[in-house]
Amino acid sequence: MVRKSPYTTGFLTYLIGHIQALKISLSQLKKSSLSTFITCMVIGISLALPVGMMVLLKNVRVATAGLKNTNQISIYLKTDISDKQRNDLLTLLNKDQSIHKTTYVSPEEGLKAFQDPLGLDKELLADLKENPLPGVVVVEPEPSLKDFLQINQLATRLKELPQVDQVQIDMAWLQRLNAILILIHRFIFAIMLLFALGVLLIISHTIQLITENYRDEIMIIKLLGASNSFIKRPFLYSGLLYGLIGGFIGWFLIFLIIGFLRGPIEQLALLYNSDFQLQGLNLHLSLLLLAFGGLLGYLGSWLSVCRHIKAIEP
Amino acid sequence: MIHFYKISKRYPKGQQALSNISFELKVGEMAFLTGHSGSGKSTLLKLIAFLERPTGGEIIVHGKNLNRLKKKHIPSLRRQIGLIFQNPNLLPHRTIFDNVALPLNIAGFRLRETGGRVRAALSKVGLLEKEKCYPDMLSCGEQQRVGIARAIVAKPPIILADEPTGNLDPALSREIMKLFSEFNQAGVTLLVASHDIALIESLPFRILTLKQGQLVHDTGARDHG
Question: Which of residues 211-240 of A touch B (CB under 8 A)?
Fold first, then answer.
C-alpha cells in the first residue's frame, strides 16, 4: 500500500501557508487595536486629501465641459469706414490662409440679435436716433490653429489693419480656465505623490515597530528552520491590511465630504440654471483607491521587512 | 550523520571555545555530551545547527558540508534537526498546540496530519490535556517538555538537546531520557548535552566528555543493556 505523503503539495501548501499568515497578521493587528486604528486613520486621511481634491477637480471639468470650445475672433470695425473699405477688408480676410471662415454682422443685424434674446422693448430701441453698434466680422481661424499663442498672433495681426477698431478673442477665458485646470491637476498629482510617499513611510515604520516586538519570535521561528519568505508573509499581510483599511477609510471620508458639499453646490448650480450634480467616486475609482492603498501598504511593509528580517539572525 | 573533523571555534572576543575536535556520530546513534559549564557543549551543538560557524575544520551533517552550505539552504538544514534548548523558547502568544504545530506549519504539512501529529507528540511528553493553554500557564518543567514535543513533532532525523533535563526533577529526567532512547530505537540520531553524570552513566549510550574546549574522553558505543 502506498502511504499518502504527509506533506501538502504545491498550491495547497501555498494556500494553507497564506491563510495561516493572514491569521497571524490579523491577531497582530487586533492585539494593538488602538494604534492600528490610528495608523489606518492617518493612512486614510493621507489618501483622502489628494484623491478628494482630484474628485472635485473632475467635477469642475464636468461642469465646464458643456462650454463650447471654439476660438472665434470678433473684429469690431471702425464706424466711420465706407462700404468699399469694408468689402476690401472682407476680401482680404477671406484670402488669409490662417482664416477658415468669416461672417459679417452688420450693425442692423447686430441690433436685432441684441434685441431678440434680451426681449428689449422695441420702442425703447426705436428711441435711439442712431444705431450705436459697429459692424462686426466674426472670424473662425483654421482648425489647425489650436494653440492659443497662434490665435493670439492672428488677433494681433488683424488689429493692425486700418479698418479695425477692436479685436476680441471670444473664448480666451475658457482657454485660460483650461490652462489653470491643467496646472491645478499637476499640482494635485504632485501632492498625491508626496502623500503616497508619506503613507509608504508610515506603513514601513509601523511594520518595523511590529517586527521589533516580534523579534524573539522571529528568532525562534528561524531556529525551527523557517525560510525568510515564511517569516515575512504575516508582516506583508499586515502591511496590505493597513493599506486596504486605510484606503477604505479614505474612501469613506471622501464619501462624507461629497455628501457634505452636495446640497450647497446643487443650489449654486440651480442659480446658474444648471442641473449640474456633484459626482462622487464611482465604482472604478473606488476600487482603484482601495488597490492603491493596498499596494502602498504591501510595498511599505516589504521595504521594512526585507531590511529587518535579514538582520535578525539567531 | 554528524562528522566533526578538526573543528576549532574561537569567538570574536578571543576566547577559544573549541579546539581540534574530531568525532563521528553514525546514523541512528545516540550519544551524550558532558563536561562542566563553559566546556563548549553548547557551542558544539550550535555549530551543528549552523547557529555558529567554526573558525577551523569541517563539519558534515546529513551528508552536507556546512562550510559550503549556501545561505538559502540553512532553513532546510534546520528542518532536519529537532532542537531542544535549555530555555524552551516557546512563543508566548500562541497556545501549546500552536507552538508544537509550528515546525509542521513551516514544513507545510496537511492540516489533518498536523492535528494528529501534534497530539501524538504532546501525549508522548504527557501534556495532551494542556494543548489549549498558553506557555506562561505552565511550569518550567512542563514548558521544557513542550519544547521537546515541538522538537520531535516533525520527526527529524537528528535531535540535538542542550541540557533538556536541567529544569526537571530526577523522576521526570529519567522519563525524558527514556523517551530519547525510544526515538533512538526508531532510528533517530541524538546528541544530548547534559552535566547530570549520574543519570547518563546509568544509561547504555556513548559519552563524549569535553574539557576546556577539548574532547578529553570518548567511551565509544557502549552495549545496550
Answer: 217, 220-228, 230
Chains A, B: CB contacts within 8 A come to 61
- Beta strands (DSSP E) in chain B are 2-10, 16-25, 30-34, 56-61, 64-65, 81-84, 158-162, 189-193, 206-211, 214-218
Q: Is B116 on the interface with A (CB under 8 A)?
A: no
Question: What are phi and psi for residue A195, nearest 5 degrees?
Answer: -65, -35
Helix (H, G, I), strand (E, B) or coil at B214: strand
Here the ipTM equals 0.83
pLDDT digits (tens, 9 = 90+) for B64-92: 888 888 888 888 889 999 999 888 889 88
Collect all residues of chain B within an 8 Å Cβ-Cβ radius of residue A12.
110
Q: Which residues of A touch B49 (CB under 8 A)?
A: 223
For residue B98, CA distances in Å to A150, B132, B150 come to 75, 9, 10
Chain A residues near residue B113 by CB distance under 8 angstroms: 6
- Report CB contact under 8 Å: B83, A220: no
Please write the tens of the pLDDT for every residue from A238-262. Answer: 999 999 999 999 999 999 998 898 8
**Chain A residues close to B100, C-beta within 8 Å:** none
**CATH 3.30.70.3040 segments of chain A:** 73-170
Is residue B84 within 8 Å of B159, Cβ to Cβ? Answer: yes
CB atoms < 10 A from the CB of A86, how many? 17
**What is the chain B residue with the closest CA to A314?**
B51
Question: Domain A73-170 is of which CATH architecture?
Answer: 2-Layer Sandwich (3.30)
Contact B213, B18 (CB under 8 A): yes
End-to-end CA distance of chain A: 42
Residue from B200, B153, B154 nearest B177 by CA: B200
Give A142's DSSP letter: P
Encoded amino acid at B70, one letter: K
**Residue ranges per structural domain of chain B:** 90-155
Encode pLDDT of A46-93 as tens digits: 999 988 888 888 888 877 766 655 667 888 888 888 888 888 888 888
For residue B210, what are the β-bridge partners?
B215
Q: CA-CA distances (angstroms) from residue B15 to A269, B59, B67, B119, B211?
A: 84, 21, 21, 44, 14
Q: Which amino acid does the sequence have at B217? A: H
